[in-house]
Structure formats: structure tokens, C-alpha cells
What we know:
Immunoglobulin-like, 4-stranded antiparallel sheet, 140 residues, 1 helix, mainly beta
Amino acid sequence: MDRLFEDFGRGFSPTRRSVFDVEPFWQQETKWFAPAVNISESQKAYEITAELPGMDEKNIEVKVANSNLSIKGERQEEKEEKDYYLRERNFGSFERSFDVPEGVDGDKIEASFSKGVLTVTLPKKPEAQKPAKRIEVKAA
């Protein structure tokens, strides 16, 4: 049953947590801006992308400490005197934290910011990049 849930929504099994052990932002009780993130995995690295439209890289901080990656930032509100009919844009501070999986080379983690999207690359150590080894099953 766990495998069915993993195939459907990788890591959304009711009995098992995902490799990053992160709670989706819409389920968190927050009173601040919480950006949406995507987490993907390739043979060589994990990648976290966060949508941060309207922000500059100077307002974003990425840190790794004690096997925990944190992304912090603040989106400033424009000070304009307007009468709004609808106002859905979020402003304020945010912080998202993720457990770093085993096998990540912490010294080679990189972050880049382009067109409102922050990309954090967590490269795997060489021993974690090896493909699965097939074990031959022999008749008894």
C-alpha cells in the first residue's frame, strides 16, 4: 500500500514521511508570507525551487546548519495610497526549513535566483549517486 501512495504522490504515504520531511505550506499555521516550493531529485542532486516573485536576491537568505536547510526572506510592501477593490498579494517575512537528506554534499550546496524563482541545488556525494545494484535470484 505504501508503494501505491509513493507512486501517486511521492512521499505522501500516511505511514511514511518524504525524504525532506516537510509539511506543505498550506497546512502550516502561519501569519506571514509562505512561498510555494517544489522538490525534485535526479541521479546527481536534489533541487528545491521556490517561487518568490517581486523579490530581489539581496532580500533572500539560504543557510545550512545541523542537517537543516532554511530559506528566509522578506517581501516589502509598496507604500502607495490607493483604494483597493481586491488585494491578494502577500507581503512580509517568511522562513521555510527542510531536513537535508543523507548523502548530500553540504559543502557544494548552491543557490541561484532568476526571474522570481530561487533554485537551491543539493548535490549528492559520489557514493549516493551509484545506481541500484541488481541482485540475481538463484533457484535453490
